[in-house]
Amino acid sequence: MLKQCCACKLMLEPLKFNRDRSRSDGLNRKCRACSSAACSRWYEDNKASVAARSAEWREVNSDREKARVAAWRAANALRKRNTEVLYYAAHAEAKRASRRERHKRDSASLADGYVCAVLIEGTSLSRRDIPMALIELKREQLQVHRLLTGLDQAINGEPK
Ligand SMILES: [Zn+2]
Asked: What is the spatial distance between Cα 131 and Cα 116, in angstroms, rounded to a whole number?
Protein backbone atom coordinates (compact mmCIF):
# COMPACT_ATOMS: atom_id res chain seq x y z
CA MET A 1 0.00 0.00 0.00
CA LEU A 2 1.39 3.39 -0.97
CA LYS A 3 1.38 6.46 1.26
CA GLN A 4 1.35 10.09 0.22
CA CYS A 5 4.07 12.44 1.48
CA CYS A 6 2.54 15.60 2.96
CA ALA A 7 5.36 17.74 1.56
CA CYS A 8 6.16 16.55 -1.97
CA LYS A 9 2.71 14.90 -2.44
CA LEU A 10 4.27 11.82 -4.09
CA MET A 11 2.71 8.37 -3.51
CA LEU A 12 5.52 6.26 -2.09
CA GLU A 13 6.16 2.84 -0.53
CA PRO A 14 6.15 2.79 3.30
CA LEU A 15 9.92 2.02 3.24
CA LYS A 16 10.49 5.58 1.93
CA PHE A 17 9.21 7.02 5.22
CA ASN A 18 10.98 7.22 8.61
CA ARG A 19 9.25 5.55 11.51
CA ASP A 20 7.18 7.66 13.89
CA ARG A 21 5.61 5.80 16.81
CA SER A 22 3.36 8.72 17.67
CA ARG A 23 1.37 8.35 14.44
CA SER A 24 -1.39 5.81 13.88
CA ASP A 25 0.29 4.20 10.83
CA GLY A 26 3.70 4.31 12.59
CA LEU A 27 5.26 6.41 9.83
CA ASN A 28 6.34 10.03 9.50
CA ARG A 29 4.11 12.32 7.45
CA LYS A 30 7.05 13.43 5.31
CA CYS A 31 9.03 11.00 3.14
CA ARG A 32 12.70 10.43 4.02
CA ALA A 33 13.92 12.81 1.29
CA CYS A 34 11.62 15.62 2.44
CA SER A 35 12.47 15.00 6.11
CA SER A 36 16.17 15.14 5.44
CA ALA A 37 15.80 18.28 3.30
CA ALA A 38 13.73 19.94 6.04
CA CYS A 39 16.33 18.95 8.58
CA SER A 40 19.16 20.43 6.51
CA ARG A 41 17.17 23.64 5.99
CA TRP A 42 16.51 23.91 9.69
CA TYR A 43 20.18 23.39 10.50
CA GLU A 44 21.24 26.01 7.92
CA ASP A 45 18.78 28.51 9.43
CA ASN A 46 19.81 27.74 13.01
CA LYS A 47 23.54 27.07 12.64
CA ALA A 48 24.57 30.11 14.62
CA SER A 49 22.31 29.40 17.58
CA VAL A 50 23.28 25.69 17.60
CA ALA A 51 26.97 26.68 17.75
CA ALA A 52 26.26 29.26 20.43
CA ARG A 53 24.37 26.73 22.54
CA SER A 54 27.08 24.08 22.34
CA ALA A 55 29.73 26.69 23.21
CA GLU A 56 27.59 27.70 26.18
CA TRP A 57 27.28 24.06 27.26
CA ARG A 58 31.05 23.61 27.12
CA GLU A 59 31.55 26.81 29.10
CA VAL A 60 29.11 25.74 31.83
CA ASN A 61 30.46 22.21 31.96
CA SER A 62 34.17 22.84 31.51
CA ASP A 63 34.93 22.94 35.23
CA ARG A 64 32.99 19.74 35.77
CA GLU A 65 34.74 18.13 32.82
CA LYS A 66 38.16 19.24 34.09
CA ALA A 67 37.38 17.87 37.55
CA ARG A 68 36.27 14.57 36.04
CA VAL A 69 39.48 14.23 34.01
CA ALA A 70 41.64 15.16 37.02
CA ALA A 71 39.84 12.61 39.22
CA TRP A 72 40.30 9.92 36.59
CA ARG A 73 44.01 10.72 36.26
CA ALA A 74 44.51 10.63 40.02
CA ALA A 75 42.69 7.32 40.40
CA ASN A 76 44.60 5.86 37.50
CA ALA A 77 47.98 7.06 38.81
CA LEU A 78 47.23 5.50 42.19
CA ARG A 79 46.23 2.20 40.58
CA LYS A 80 49.34 2.25 38.40
CA ARG A 81 51.57 2.94 41.42
CA ASN A 82 49.95 0.10 43.40
CA THR A 83 50.48 -2.30 40.52
CA GLU A 84 54.13 -1.26 40.25
CA VAL A 85 54.71 -1.66 43.99
CA LEU A 86 53.17 -5.14 43.93
CA TYR A 87 55.15 -6.07 40.84
CA TYR A 88 58.48 -4.96 42.27
CA ALA A 89 57.80 -6.65 45.60
CA ALA A 90 57.02 -9.94 43.87
CA HIS A 91 59.99 -9.47 41.56
CA ALA A 92 62.40 -8.72 44.42
CA GLU A 93 61.22 -11.78 46.34
CA ALA A 94 61.69 -13.96 43.23
CA LYS A 95 65.18 -12.52 42.76
CA ARG A 96 66.10 -13.22 46.40
CA ALA A 97 64.76 -16.77 46.08
CA SER A 98 66.76 -17.39 42.91
CA ARG A 99 69.92 -15.98 44.56
CA ARG A 100 69.38 -18.34 47.52
CA GLU A 101 68.90 -21.25 45.12
CA ARG A 102 72.04 -20.39 43.18
CA HIS A 103 74.04 -20.02 46.38
CA LYS A 104 72.82 -23.45 47.55
CA ARG A 105 73.71 -25.01 44.19
CA ASP A 106 77.12 -23.33 44.05
CA SER A 107 77.85 -24.29 47.60
CA ALA A 108 76.84 -27.91 47.01
CA SER A 109 78.95 -28.18 43.86
CA LEU A 110 81.82 -26.05 45.24
CA ALA A 111 81.62 -23.84 42.14
CA ASP A 112 84.54 -21.48 41.43
CA GLY A 113 82.55 -18.41 42.45
CA TYR A 114 81.52 -19.93 45.75
CA VAL A 115 85.02 -21.16 46.63
CA CYS A 116 86.46 -17.78 45.67
CA ALA A 117 83.92 -16.00 47.88
CA VAL A 118 85.01 -18.20 50.80
CA LEU A 119 88.65 -17.33 50.06
CA ILE A 120 88.23 -13.56 49.96
CA GLU A 121 85.78 -13.38 52.86
CA GLY A 122 87.11 -10.97 55.47
CA THR A 123 89.79 -9.57 53.12
CA SER A 124 89.64 -6.57 50.81
CA LEU A 125 90.67 -8.69 47.83
CA SER A 126 88.41 -9.09 44.82
CA ARG A 127 87.72 -12.26 42.85
CA ARG A 128 90.06 -11.08 40.10
CA ASP A 129 92.96 -11.10 42.58
CA ILE A 130 92.67 -14.84 43.27
CA PRO A 131 94.66 -17.18 41.00
CA MET A 132 92.84 -20.29 39.77
CA ALA A 133 95.38 -22.58 41.47
CA LEU A 134 94.41 -21.13 44.84
CA ILE A 135 90.73 -21.77 44.10
CA GLU A 136 91.54 -25.42 43.24
CA LEU A 137 93.47 -25.79 46.50
CA LYS A 138 90.68 -24.22 48.56
CA ARG A 139 88.12 -26.46 46.81
CA GLU A 140 90.10 -29.58 47.81
CA GLN A 141 90.36 -28.30 51.36
CA LEU A 142 86.61 -27.72 51.51
CA GLN A 143 85.97 -31.18 50.07
CA VAL A 144 88.22 -32.72 52.72
CA HIS A 145 86.47 -30.71 55.41
CA ARG A 146 83.05 -31.89 54.20
CA LEU A 147 84.25 -35.49 54.09
CA LEU A 148 85.48 -35.18 57.66
CA THR A 149 82.19 -33.62 58.77
CA GLY A 150 80.35 -36.54 57.13
CA LEU A 151 82.63 -39.03 58.81
CA ASP A 152 82.20 -37.30 62.15
CA GLN A 153 78.41 -37.49 61.77
CA ALA A 154 78.56 -41.14 60.74
CA ILE A 155 80.49 -41.99 63.89
CA ASN A 156 79.05 -39.58 66.45
CA GLY A 157 75.60 -38.76 65.03
CA GLU A 158 74.11 -35.40 64.04
CA PRO A 159 75.66 -32.42 65.84
CA LYS A 160 73.52 -31.13 68.73
ZN1 LIG B 1 8.28 13.92 0.18
From this structure: 9
